[in-house]
Amino acid sequence: MKITLTARPGSKSTRFPKTLELDGTPKSLTAHDLAKAIQREFPKYTLDRQRVTTPDKKVLDAHDSATLASFGIEDGGSVQFKDLGPQIGWQTVFLIEYGGPLFIHPIFYYLSKLIYGTEIEHSTMQTLTFIMVMLHFLKREYETLFVHRFSHGTMPFRNIFKNSAHYWILSGVNLAFWVYGPWFQAGKAAAARSDLYIYACLALWVFGELSNLKTHYTVRNLRPPGTKTRAIPYGYGFSLVSFPNYFFEFISWTTVCFLTKSWSAVLFNVVATGQMYVWAIKKHKAYKRDFPNYPKNRKAMFPLIA
Fold it and tell me: Membrane-crossing residues (predicted)?
């Protein structure tokens, strides 16, 4: 069959339109076959760099085994092609994102004279916050390397700067500068916390972190290595919400807000929770769409609420 590649509107590429000849019919050829044919014609455009859409905006996943006919593509038809640009693996993305706070927080904590112009005797609150932040992002790095199985292999390299800003700036510089400053050092009224208050915050934070880790293992075990298998998760936390991992992370960072009583922690938590909620709603709708038997009583992220 023949199929014509056209460029997205506004593209100045001189390579398109380009007609490809594929050995087969729309009923026998798949989206993956088309993606491989594009890569043979243009070796630069690896499968993960390609975004191919039909005239009615249906996306052909380069790894999809669905036939071209199922997308309404006929012999002699056309699709629109977009180069997504150089790619970077998601595992590398997360390692870079979470590495930011691990690099930034020790600078502010240990180099107080350089940052604030004075030596700081850290309060119990500051020291505990430092330990909690470091352990949280070390856990994130561990999960990235040994727990998560990614359904998408790569993302456009240019997005790494936008994605990293959230962690490097909000949970990095923003949180570290304000929490480890002299206004919260030992002896200052703003840093005063009772032992009971500190132990309660620590206990709630540990609960949130360990619960988050447990739900990540639950999701991991739903997807055999090297597959994109999707299934309905059950077990700890999932009886109430579709994404208890987000809810437990919200608990962890809310605990940091109460421990520090700093608006910098609140700012990061509000932005992070808002983003997680957007993701949760989108994925929750996908669950209900793709699984007719999906539990109807589950909320997206917050138990009994939403």
Answer: 165-184, 196-213, 234-256, 262-281
Cβ atoms within 10 A of the Cβ of 47, count? 16
Burial class (CB in 10 A: 0-12, 13-18, 19+), 117: exposed
- Measured CA to CA, the distance from residue 113 to residue 2 in angstroms comes to 69
Q: Which of 61, 62, 174, 156 is nearest to 108 (CA)?
A: 174
Q: Where in the chain is the domain with CATH 3.10.20.90?
A: 2-85
216-220 LR contacts (CB < 8 Å, sep 24+): 216/143, 216/147, 216/148, 216/245, 217/147, 219/245, 220/147, 220/148, 220/149
Residue 196, both tokens: 């009971």
Tell me the whole-structure pTM to 2 decimals: 0.84
| Region of poorest pLDDT, from 146-160, 191-205, 255-269 | 146-160
CA separation for the pair 302, 292 (Å, rounded): 22
Say if residues 205 and 249 touch (Cβ distance below 8 Å). Answer: no
Q: Dihedral (C-alpha) 140, 144, 147, 152: value to the nearest 10 degrees?
A: 130
Provide mean pLDDT across the span 257-280.
Answer: 97
Three-state DSSP class for residue 54: coil
Backbone angles phi, psi at 171, to 5 degrees: -95, -5
Residue 106 pLDDT level (bands cut at 50, 70, 90): very high
Residue 238, both tokens: 């999932």
- Can you point out the beta strands (E) in 116-157? 154-156
Q: Are 141 and 95 in contact (CB under 8 A)?
A: yes
**3-class SS shares of the chain: helix, strand, coil, % to 5:** 55, 10, 35
